[in-house]
Design a protein that fits this description.
The protein has about 170 residues and is an alpha+beta fold. The chain is about 30% helix and about 5% strand. It has two helices and four strands; from the N terminus they run H-H-E-E-E-E. The protein has a four-stranded mixed beta sheet with strand order 1-2-3-4, with helices on one face.
Length: about 170
């Protein structure tokens, strides 16, 4: 009579538990790195957008006799064609020499609103009603033309020179 030995294949409970524990440890190490990736991507996008807006404001100023665009109510001076005096004109008009400088109103990825009006500042802080901070000044005291992004509650101004700044003040 022949005896056959049956071979049981599979994993023991202890082996499965060890694998699950190792996967849990790896997940605990890797997942926190991805949670900051979204915020970092928004900050990098905002930094690039700020550089573009600032350069277009400087170009406007250069082409319009050192006059800053009035962005305190809307973006039309940067999104439409203008004449040399800074008046918006139709696209086909012969005096439409400059612009448009931006394709459309920029969206502050941290604030989350493309149509938010800018806050005019002269050394003051942002507020919760504005996604952008623009030092336009007044006719009597012209501003510097500096431009920043504000956080959702307006308690922080995004300064890309200081990467540790947080705009997460929801």
């Amino acid at each position: 009579m022949k005896m056959y030995r049956t071979v049981k294949r599979g994993f023991t409970l202890v082996e499965i538990l060890i694998v699950v524990i190792i996967l849990g440890i790896l997940a605990a190490i890797v997942i926190p790195q991805f949670t900051n990736a979204s915020q970092d991507a928004r900050k990098n996008s905002l930094t690039s957008q700020l550089q573009t807006i600032r350069s277009q404001i400087e170009l406007y100023k250069l082409q319009h006799r050192d006059v800053l665009p009035d962005l305190t109510t809307d973006w039309t001076l940067l999104t439409e064609k203008t004449d040399e005096n800074g008046n918006t004109v139709a696209n086909g008009a012969t005096d439409a020499k400059f612009g448009p400088y931006l394709q459309g109103p920029p969206s502050n990825g941290i604030f989350g609103d493309a149509t938010t009006a800018m806050l005019v500042v002269n050394g003051t802080a942002a507020d919760s009603g504005h996604g952008w901070v623009y030092d336009y000044g007044t006719a009597a005291a012209p501003g510097t033309g500096k431009f920043w992004a504000a956080s959702k509650l307006g308690t922080n101004i995004y300064d890309e020179a200081n990467p540790n700044d947080s705009l997460n003040d929801q």
